[in-house]
Amino acid sequence: MVDAEGMGAEAERVETATGLSGPNGSGHPIFGLSPGEDSGSDTLARYRYQAEVATRDCLAMLTEDAIEFVVCEWHEDFVVAFTDGSVELVSVKHREENQGTWSLPQLCKDGGLTHLFDRWCACDCATNVRLRLATNAALNPAKGNAGTLARMCGPEPELTDGLNDMADTIARQMLKVRWKQPYPNVPVTPEVRKLADIQVPVGFVEKIIRFLAVLEISCDPPQREHITDVNIQSLLGRAVEQLQLVHVDLEATYRAIVDRIEQANRDESDRGQLAAYIADPSRVRYSTQMQQRIGRRRLTREIVRREFVFTSVQLPTFPRGRAPVVAPGGVKLNRKLRRGLVPSDEAAFAERLRSAWYTTWSERRSGLAGDDTDLLNLSMDVLETAFECRRHARAAVADGSAFGVKMNDLLAERLKVDALSTPPPFLLNNMHVRGLAYQLCDECHFYFSEPFDADEEAS
User: Fold this and answer.
1) pTM to 2 decimals?
2) How confident is the model at residue 264, as a pLDDT?
3) 300 strand-pairing partners
4) Please, which residues have CB within 8 angstroms of residue 134's CB and are 6 or more apart in sequence?
């Protein structure tokens, strides 16, 4: 994933050209911000590492309701949007093993701490914005150093003794960084030789304390040479198991997801900082351009699922090793097929397919809130095909004649997984899709004849 630091001049040029940085543009000062320099972010390997860290949150999104979507940022590495309306700005910092642990001054200068503080200020220090610094390196464990800082972060810190002194130290380190790097939201102070001699502006330490309360410093991401294997086995494999998917090519799927994240981040026409707009949707509500910019970088649960790669093994209609489950209901389906003069043996087969769909959906859906949307999208595709089959069946028989048999034949011919406009949320075969059609018929979404009251007709 592209790290925006080191490309400030180009970002400023693009934002000015699009009218998004000045008072006549969007009106928000965040577009006037230019990322600082980062001489260590120019290798493709590091870009890939940042994308793989973002992949960890995308994989968590598959099985967790709390995450709504992930946006590949320009100034931040990515932003996680949660269903409760909060957002998390994530900055990824890779450190080679031979560079040792992060010290407190290094975190402020090169480790992204000052960068995150500046972005948080650009988001108006909003109460629904929190921050995460994700790094593969350990923190210096010495007293008062980076390890101590991590224990003082968050709304419920592990350590509170010495917080004011730590905030004062962080404030001075950031003010020192500001002498060389253009962070607009860090005050400019006169340069002095000693850290203790820096004149800290009134209220700045208190602001740092508030900053630490929304910050997490995470050392969870594995080393660059291990992150791929760890993500595949520990995260993707677990998600596949929890979603009860079968015949998933884990390595191919993982590569596809990481590539999709990198694709979202390569939208070079889009260099404005988006976090403030994600945190406050009212800013973007009336801007079609901003909606499109965010949309190009947004990764939802559905988008990530589309990247799943399945093997060519034929999926059984009923799961192996289990007794078939009979779907509840079915009376209305039977009446409709009989009214359409569908033969009894084909009607019995339709009922088996309905049970196959019921079993498959019950066992393989994720159990998350997105299931309803997945089912609705799939049902809309199936219904569209069913209505198309009915129109052709009506046209193929004499006026007033029963067309149910012809319609059922057309369903078997045209209702295919490959013909769906929306990919299913998990692997299905054609019989499962027909089973869903029969379930929708049983729910009175369509008929195999002219509509009638299926509740009142005697069995």
Assistant:
1) 0.66
2) 83
3) 69
4) 53, 90, 91, 92, 93, 218, 220, 221
